[in-house]
Amino acid sequence: MTTATTPGHGPLTGVRVVELAGIGPGPFAAMLLADLGADVVRVSRPGGSSLSIDPAFDITNRNKRSVVVDLKAPEGPARVLDLAARADILIEGNRPGVAERLGVGPEDCHARNPALVYGRMTGWGQEGPLAQRAGHDIAYIALTGTLGLIGEPGRPPAVPANLLGDYAGGSLYLVVGVLAALHHARATGTGQVVDAAIVDGTSHLSAMIHAMTAAGGWQDRRGANLLDGGCPYYGTYETADGKYMAVGALEPQFYHLFLDLLGVPDFADARKDWTRWGDLRDAVAARFRSRTRDEWAAVFEGTDACVAPVLSLREAPHHPHLAARGTFTDHSKITQPAPAPRFSATPTAVRTGPARDGADTADVARDWGVPDLVKDQELRKGPE
After folding, report:
1. Is 269 marked active-site?
2. Does the active-site annotation cover 357?
3. S-S: 317 plus which of 13, 231, 280, 328, CB 3.0-4.6 Å?
4. Is 346:37 a contact under the CB 8 Å cutoff?
């Protein structure tokens, strides 16, 4: 299928995606596809999701359209299959076997559309001893060894919100998978199932660390390595006002500039001398505590010392660099990250705010040629 692109709609204009509503990594993956220009139809459940957020603020549903389908009603599975028959990609995030029991599993969908890419987003994957177990990001990344990498030695591992598992190891790998499978489907006419498991993706993210461990360049414990806070010139330090600066002065030229600007030139020879790292850390920490975060940010601004202030979520959009790039944007009265990455020929944009459950039924029914969606909606409403 080839269609003309519309400015601001992105390189996936013309690609149709069905998202079976869920929470977490599935909706984020569908948002990314929508940001890139795909026509994403979110199939919501009657009564909405269990996510405790006002739907008006759920930006993971931006750039999408929504219909409501009751998959437990007699006609429900047929409506999803009608959409799947006209789609390029379908995304679902149920436990293994649930979609099959509901009548919208891969075999059902491929019977209607052999070229469909069927993306499955789970924590444990479609098979294995834990496949049927409930779980969340923190449990998935715990088993992969990646959670154990993060934090200070002698203290519990630090929890990286749900960014590492749900979104990096989950959503992003699902998107890579379904786009790769879409390329194959368009070349061959054959669709397939993409099994995106958070445990697989998160493990894959740690490939370099596994390589360094095998080579003897990484100790299998927290806070003892170059990139995990064990190195005094790669980490964070508290400032006089209780805020923080981040230091990443790894290369020699950056390290020496960092020491000069910080005011501790006596440690020029300590870069590779591990016996002096304790003293270096103490000296760096003492210097950072002598001024506020913003004062230190001014000292390092415009230099190659690889030092930056640690900003809050609310502060980040106002940083001059991020503001100049338009890294954040305002839409529907919500400040939010702009679509990423960027494209020279097919730019992207936040086109619409969060989709509201069922609000787009008539438009989707018309555009996708599924008039029964409107009939079902009218039946659910009943006589007025």
Report:
1. no
2. no
3. 328
4. yes
